[in-house]
Amino acid sequence: MGILPNIKSNDRPKVLVTPAQENIKKLKLKVKEMTRRKWFQDSPMLKISALNAVLRGWISYYRHTNAKKIAKDLDFWVNERLFLWLSKRHKASKRKVLDRFKLRENGKRGNFGVVNGDNYPFLYRMSDLPLKKYRSGSPDNPYLEGDWKTSAAQPEKPLSQRIWMGNAENVIWRELKEKIKAERGAQCEQCGSLGKLDLHHLVSRKNKGKDTEDNLQLLCRTCHAQTPSFGRR
Ligand SMILES: [Zn+2]
Fold it and tell me: Which pTM does this prediction carry?
């Protein structure tokens, strides 16, 4: 190795846990939450993308463990959950849902997916991620180093604090806010504050005010809280 520093004892994966029951439960709760009927307004594509982000994050946290079996069981469970959501959302028989959404992934296995132009977003399968067993000691053979070293970023937690639920309304709302901020400047339209900004309805939603630009005003939290309709919706 000459003058190269010995990196054997550094640069090891830091998270060496197996999926605890508690974290499996947390994942299931999150997926359940995302596939409730109140999210029927979401498109199947939005839903699959949001689920994929959660599943990818969760399993990559465990990629140095022997979680293959757990990943397979969870894949099956998520698949059923999405199946149910699609059936209820489209008020269609299971057969019809399968005909429409169970597609051939890479010309091979059947998986839930959506046709989107040339793209086919498919449900992410956690068991597809190659899991690497962590070796506690130094490898016997230095040429095997590649088997246990990683430079990929490690998520801090199995589930991040803030999760995109795939909520269509939120996405549209966020985009509208960004657009208005870009057009009018990112500051409170009343006091000029550059702090956290809300979109305020001039005519409230309760009074049939629309989510249109001419009915929306950028306000800081303080000014927003002083509007008569604040907190009433
Ligand atoms: Zn203000």
Answer: 0.60
